[in-house]
């Protein structure tokens, strides 16, 4: 019998010393209170482990679940009137501006290539 690294002779010595210190009337009362304390510690440990397992399972569930991304269009009331009209019907000026930007980039690359190198 080996409890907490304490053998039978050491346990008997501890019980004899406790009997001498507390007396025969107090010893059973102290034993009961220690047993209740150990029982409450064990119950708290089991509750903690169960909570930890639940949280771990919940985290794993959220990590393995596929992510969903949805983009919602804002209400027309949320946008000013001009922006709502521009968004509803894109104008040709937007594509013209993009073409002009592409042309400017192309011009810069041509001018860089024709520049004399030192």
Strand proportion, as a percent range, falls in under 5%
Q: Major sheet, described briefly?
A: none
End-to-end Cα distance, whole Å, is 92 Å
The low-confidence runs, each spanning 5 or more residues with pLDDT under 50, are none
Please report the number of helical segments.
Answer: 4
Q: How does the helix and strand content classify structurally?
A: mainly alpha
Quaternary state of this entry equals: single chain
Q: Level of helix content?
A: over 70%
Average pLDDT for all residues = 75
Q: Tally the beta strands.
A: 0
Order of helices and strands: HHHH
Detailed description of the structure:
By secondary structure, this protein is mainly α. Helix content is 71%, strand content 0%. The protein has four helices and no strands. The longest helix is centred in the middle third of the chain and has 38 residues. The N and C termini lie far apart (92 Å). The model has no long low-confidence stretch (mean pLDDT 75).
Secondary structure blueprint with pairings:
Blueprint: H1 8-22, H2 27-64, H3 81-88, H4 92-114
Give me a quick take on this structure.
This protein has 118 residues and is an all-alpha fold.
Task: State the main characteristics.
118 residues; mainly alpha; rod-shaped; 71% helix
């Amino acid at each position: 019998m080996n409890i907490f690294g304490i053998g039978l002779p050491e346990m008997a010595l501890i019980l004899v010393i406790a009997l001498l210190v507390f007396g025969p009337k107090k010893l059973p009362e102290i034993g009961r209170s220690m047993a209740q304390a150990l029982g409450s510690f064990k119950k708290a440990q089991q509750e903690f482990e169960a909570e930890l397992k639940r949280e771990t399972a919940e985290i794993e569930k959220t990590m393995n679940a596929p992510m969903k991304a949805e983009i919602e269009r804002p209400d027309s009331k949320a946008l000013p009137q001009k922006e709502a009209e521009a968004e509803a019907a894109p104008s040709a000026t937007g594509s013209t501006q993009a073409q002009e930007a592409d042309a400017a980039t192309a011009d810069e690359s041509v001018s860089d290539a024709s520049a004399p190198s030192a």
